[in-house]
Please model this.
Amino acid sequence: MNATIPRMTVITLGVADLARATAFYREIFSTRPVTQYDGVTFIPLPGVWLSLYPLEKLVEDIAEEVVPLPANAFRGFTLAYNARSREEVVSVFARVADAGAHIAKAPQETFWGGYSGYFTDPDGHYWEVVWGPMFDFSEHGDLRFKA
Model:
C-alpha cells in the first residue's frame, strides 16, 4: 500500500513558556484552546490545529541532538494567515500588536501585487499576514486560487 499525506492536521510550536504562548494565541485567534492535555495546548482552527508544547519537552520527544535556536532567530519557515482584503491585514496587525507580538515588517505593498507584513509571537515564530489578488476562499473558508 502506498500511503500519502493528504493534508496537514497539526502544527506544533516549541515554546519557552506554555502559559504565555497559550494566552497570546488565545488572544489573537479569539478562540479558547482545548483543555491542555498532558502539558500541551491544542487550539483547533479551521483545517488545522495549532499545538503549543514546551520546547525542552519537544526536543526530548524528538530524541535527537537538537540545539534550540534563540527566540529571535529566523528558523527558515513562516506560518501564514491569508486575509480577504488589505484592510483585514491592517486589522490583524492591530490585534496582534495589542496582544504583544513583535512587528518584524509592517504591512506594505508587495512586488507581486499583494499586501503583506510579518510579526513574531513571543517565542520568535514568524507569521505572515497577507492578502493577494490571486486568492479566493471557498464557501467553507478554504484558501484557493481564483478560477
